[in-house]
Design a protein that fits this description.
- The chain is α+β, with helices and mostly antiparallel strands.
- It is 34% helix and 20% strand.
- The chain has a six-stranded mixed β-sheet with strand order 1-8-2-5-3-4, with helices on one face. The protein has a six-stranded antiparallel β-sheet with strand order 11-12-13-15-9-16, with helices on one face. Strands 6-7 form a two-stranded antiparallel ribbon.
- The termini are far apart.
Length: 393
Amino acid sequence: MSDLQIGLLIVGVAVVAAVLIFNWIQERRFRRQANAAFQAPAADALMRPMPHTAHDRVEPALRESALEDEDGHDADEPHVRLGSDLPLTGEAIAPVAVTTASYPAAVERPAAVSQQPAGAPPPPYDEQIEYRVRIGCDGAMASVFAEAFNQTRALGKAIRWLGLPVGATTWEDFQPWRDARYQQVTVTMQLADRNGAVQEEQLTGLCDVLQTEARTHGLRLACDDMVDALERAQAMDRFCVDVDVLIGLNVVARGEGSVNLTRIVREAQSCGMVLGGDGVYQLLDSRGEPLYALCNHDAEPFAVEAVEGQTSQGVTLQFDVPRVPDGLKVFDGMVAFGRKLANETGGILVDDNLRPLTDTGIEKIRSQLLHIYERMEARGVPSGSRRSLRLFS
């Protein structure tokens, strides 16, 4: 090896050594900078643990009894409570946790509620088809609820307001324009009707409106459990859909002819049917509720004064199954009336598919009606009852 090669080798080793030493120095310097950047300052006030004091944050909790005075809270604060069946009287009322996420649990304590007079009956609340909100009033004037009364009417379901006047032992229909003081008020929302089951937002809206009223005037509020109410509403709606049947019987002309409306009108009037404002004849019961109806097939409804010789393609008898008491008897009466109309006009009694109704067909319909009415009785919703009229409205 020549002197030149040895010299170049020494120079190369020196350069490599210099590069390694430089990289090591740089690595140590960057490591110190990184440690300094990510280490919390010893004197950082935001990172120091705070000592426990009397002002520490405490998670809210529902107490065993919201009426006990030993807890030191103001007894005049309003209270909102869900899912309880305890009366709004002077005994302790235990708040119940809310089971729907959209309606917050209230943690305010209720004020002491005035005792309900001995022997006072509970409000006429129908647990099967209603959701209930109770308000302890302590003699509040009826006018206090005027705004809430109007707001609840716009929630899309039937609302009932009932009040127990101060010193009274019977409930009455509540009206905010009365000059009366109430110790208790109950507001109910119907769970189902022919438009379907009540929705959660409707129940929440009812409680929100009444909660605002309670807080404004220092009243106590108790809303029933929403989850239970929604389950009852869905079950009742499914039942109503199954039994909500409208039977139609038609009297039509034979062949290409027509039926004489003048004769039909005379028969309807002689049987006690009355003409409604919608141009439909109805046979009413003693309550003024329709048993069955008679309407014209043509576009024009029945007129107050029948025109002599007026004709039509036919007429229809309609029977609203769940709204009629003693339905089988009423159905038999409607069939007899339909056959009489067919005989008087030379027409024929047919079903909705224009098939002639024989005795066998009529008996088949009666059998189906009997099954429906048995189901309604078993469910506690007898046909034509007050509860049934409310559900099928």
